[in-house]
Amino acid sequence: MKSSTTLTLISKYTKAFILFFSILIALSLFWNIGNVKKETQRLAEMEATTSLNKDLAFRLWGTRHGGAYLIVDEQTQPSVFLAHVSERDVKTTSGKTLTLYNPATMLREIMNDYSKLYGVKARITAELYLNPENAPDAWEAKALKELKRGKKEFKEITTIEGKDYLRVMQPMYMEGGCLKCHAWTGIKVGGLRGATDISISMEKYEALKQQSINKLIFTHTILWLIGIGSIFFLGRQLNKSEQKIKENQEHLRIVYKALEQSANGILVADQNGIIQYTNGGFERINGYMRDELVGQSLYKIKSNLNPSVLYDDMWSKISNGQTWRGELRNRKKDGSVYWCYETISPVIAPGGKITHYIGVVEDIENRKLAEEHIKQLMQYDALTNLPNRNYFREKLDAQLLNASVESRIFGLIFLDIDRFKMINDALGHLIGDILLQSLSERFIHESKNGLFISRLGGDEFAIITPLTDSKKIIENYIEKIKQIIRKPFFIQEHDIFVTASIGVTIYPQDGIDAEILIRSADMAMYGAKINGKNTHLFFEPVHGDFASEILEIESGLHKAIENSELFLVYQPKWDTKENRFIGLEVLVRWQSKTLGFMNPAKFIHIAEETDLIVILGEWILRESLVAMMRLSLVVGFVPKISVNLSPVQFKSEGLNAMVKDSLEKTNFPPEQLELEITEGALVNNPVASIEKMTDLCNYGVSFSIDDFGTGYSSMSYLKKFPVSTLKIDKSFVDDIIDDPHDRAIIQAIVTLAKSFNIDTIAEGAETREQVDALNSLGCYNIQGYWHSKPLEYTALLAYFEKIKE
Ligand code: C2E
Ligand code: CA
Ligand code: CA
């Protein structure tokens, strides 16, 4: 399309050129022909003038001499027109006759000869004549009139007998010498006596003219042809180059468009680093508009975020004519930093000089993010953002190397959250996750002080301390970690208190390679768990047994029931105000054939973590009901008993049916059964919990909240649940003498419970002082060593005997 309009445009110009050139040639031809015509006429005129001049000269000579006497013979006869002249004829002494020839006569004769010789017709004429031959013809009469008017010459091309002639007439004036013959005319000296005229045939001049014109036509035609040819040729060349230019322009347009549309940023700078061009991609990537950069130095966009060796390498490469490629961190106009992949190539002129640099910038921010993300996935735990097990192993290996190089020590700390499964079961996995996240946030914050804290999975964390020189510093770190954990968490309306079992191993005293250190830290952690949780333990070789012990406990528990290794003890509760027995708490014991005697603190949580607790719990309930019914036969009444319900058990499907079934089968009065549950068991699904509890309450069973104050919820929250007793946790009782804060808590619990019409009982009171203090705070119901330790069945019988008194 474009090129065809270019073609028509070009041919239009060519046409105009041809027309113009043709007109020029035509004008030149006409002008030259005109010149030739003028020239030939001038030639003819020159010939005429020459002839006339000759005539004039001759006539003047004749006039001056008054004529000439010629010998009369055949050729020369006396002129009849001079008959009036005296002495026209004279006789010589020898008798020859001479006759006078006046100039006019001679001239006329000469002219006749001319005419014959050259075709030049010359005549002499006058208005007054004697010789009729001299009578003027029509043209001469006209010419004579012009001369009479004073013209010195009259000339004209006229036709004589069908042919062109140049006729020229010049005047003849009367002179003294003329009077001899022409006095008769009466014309005075100086007057116009007549004229000579001449007719030059134009034939030969016409031929000459035609020849010249033909030559002119020929040369002009040749010139015209050459001109037209050249115009065509140039036009075509012009057309071609024009087309080429158009094509190049189109090409450039497309390339430019491609440059503009490129997702990559493109920048061109001259050899001095002054920016010449940036494309749209460049603007998109770093926010700088073209106008802001063109004409500016590259320094304007240099970020200084990259190591200087990188720039050195880049400049040395490109100034040597090579292309540099690499990843750089750049700064956008808004100040933000991004990663890009840059290709910088020099543009080298034919002489070898670098004229420009072209930079292509690819935004690899997303790729980098993906890489970081992958690294994050590979090295960090998705839930907590803490380093994961892989990263922990890498770090441990690196730390081992550093420690051996620097000959220093460091601690490896394994940490497991106590009863995490229960928190999970009680409050739901979401809150469990949030708890792990919140704890990890604290850990991440603490990591800034040099600790490497990673999550190995579940509720297990591994911590690597910085290199140090003393165990004391490692202990400080452990204390710090415990503090971090101890601070309560507030998650979705729940106050959650967490403890952890911590195992510590020290390089190099406990081991010099990663495997051994990990194993010993793990063992120490199990040791801490078995020791009753919420403690930390430095590894000792004996701890090697703990891990296997846990496995043994687990497998041993499965068989404990059938093997009758479990038995129950009963701890009395006492009303110190009324001095009366209130009830018994049922507590389980395990006398293992292989593992020896075991407190529930050691095995209950293992049972809870494997769901074995449900079977165990069922056995404990039935067993205690049976035992109490038997006891009632002895003591005469069915004592009120409290049976502990694990949260796992409380949550289990068939709990209510199981409880009712046990009561029915044993005939145990439901009013005498109290179930102890912890706060955590309630808050997970309050609606279901309330439903479950209400159902059992309607059946006659009552509920107490165990370990109250250490759990998860606000006290007012409890109002919703059908609870008859709060058991104030032993930890508050422990410090009741020394810690006013604990006293305040007990006071608050007692007051609140009273307002809700709920009973309170204090656990773990060991001394008289503690009991007095509790009494002073309004708490009179006591369960603790002060009154009685948990008692085996037979001891219980003795107890009842004793209190009867
Ligand atoms: P708990 O329910 O808080 O039980 C009270 C614990 O405090 C008992 O330990 C009891 O022996 C102890 N204790 C009572 N008074 C004193 C005192 O004055 N001083 C000291 N130092 N300790 C006192 P035990 O029997 O070792 O039970 C530990 C925990 O094991 C119980 O805490 C309970 O959570 C769990 N447990 C025990 N028996 C059962 C059971 O039959 N079923 C379930 N699910 N859990 C049980
Ligand atoms: Ca209890
Ligand atoms: Ca308790």
Descriptive report:
The chain has an eight-stranded mixed barrel with strand order 20-21-23-24-25-26-27-28, surrounded by four helices. The protein has a five-stranded antiparallel beta sheet with strand order 9-8-12-11-10, with helices on both faces. It is rod-shaped and about 230 Å long. It is built from 25 helices and 28 strands. The protein folds into four domains: 41-207, Beta-Lactamase, CATH 3.30.450; 262-363, PAS domain (Beta-Lactamase); 379-541, Reverse transcriptase/Diguanylate cyclase domain (Alpha-Beta Plaits); 553-798, TIM Barrel, CATH 3.20.20. Helix 1 (2-65) packs antiparallel against helix 2 (103-118), helix 15 (546-560) crosses helix 16 (600-610) and helix 17 runs parallel beside helix 19 (655-666). The chain has 805 residues and is α+β, with helices and mostly antiparallel strands. One calcium ion binds at residues 706-707, 727, 763.
List keywords for this structure.
single chain; 805 residues; alpha+beta; Beta-Lactamase; Alpha-Beta Plaits; 4 domains; eight-stranded mixed beta barrel; five-stranded antiparallel beta sheet; binds ligand C2E; binds calcium ion
